[in-house]
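Problem 12. The chain below contains 381 residues. Write out its predicted structure in token notation.
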Amino acid sequence: MIEIDQLVFEYPGHRALDGVSLRLERGSVTALVGPNGAGKSTLLRCMAGLETPLSGQIRIDGISVIDAPRQVHRKLGYLSDFFGLYEGLRVRQCLAYAALAVGVARQQLPGRVAQVAQAMDLTALLQRRPGELSRGQRQRLAIGQAIIHSPQVLLLDEPASGLDPQARSSLAALFRQLQAQGMTLLVSSHILSELDEYSTHILSIRQGRIVSHEDLRASPHWPQPAGPDAPAAADAPQRQQRDPHLYPHLLELACAPDEEQALQARLEAAWAQLPHSQGLPPPARHASASPPSVLPPSPAGQAHWVPNGAEPAVSLQWQLWLPAAATARAQLVQQLVAAGLPVAGLWPLRLRLQERYARSLQTEPPSPWPTEQPPHAGERP
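Solution.
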């Protein structure tokens, strides 16, 4: 969906982007992270067609941002970290003007304005002017202007700035909804805990270079499984390369302490009935708690009381492979419950974004140039 090749951008006396190359897949939500001055905002502005790079190419849905920026703008929404609003217009007019500017037909305006106003909690404010809004309300209006034309790509620079906790939670829900509709999002923010709620990928940038670009659903650090099937279940990176559509999950079951072996057999039998389980190892037991950096933090093997208080139960965890879609998890839970298994929870297994970012800080930004001789001003390829 988004392709960037060897992008270079220079300010006077400073190279802000140094050979940036990346690919963002359709429907992904990528967290753009890095220290201040790393080049995050410059990268977003280049992608939005607001800055002309020294060299390189940017394509969105196959269209060159450099050669056809206005054509790209119809497919793209952009929110700057320091955005402006037309103070003389009312909220309804701001949304309508933003829609017309990117080619939305006039007959579609009432429906689009009403839909976006509801999504951004602006319906009661449509007759107000931006100067009468709070900081958070102005932020929601700016985001509404960016999505008024239902873009295929949404670029956001610090979108949660100025929002209260409830508004931030609503914003995360909105991003998940937009992703479910197939929109591709690239979000820059310093609030990593919020990015963790909806991001599928992390793109770490430092000194104008890409340090890492990873799928958050494919963690290289798994809790170590136990049992005879452990070697087959532990080859996470190799399995991910063979089938990138499968991701590790953690299944939690509750049972009495003397039922563990029987529960393992019942789980394997139910797993074998699932269509996607062919060729994959059976669920692998986890004998200890997951590390704190791995989702979820629920401790395995911890005794607790079942809801009716009749007898103590043990929480046991298994690692298994599933497609990323929620329907796959629902199918598995339905199958396990039908088999009489005591399902306590099922989670995608991945590292927290904070852990990914901390690890990237320990890596030196690699040079994108084979001979360490990048182009300089006046040497545009």
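Discussion. Residues 219-237, 288-310 have pLDDT under 50 and may be disordered. Students who got a different answer should revisit the alignment rule from Section 12.3.
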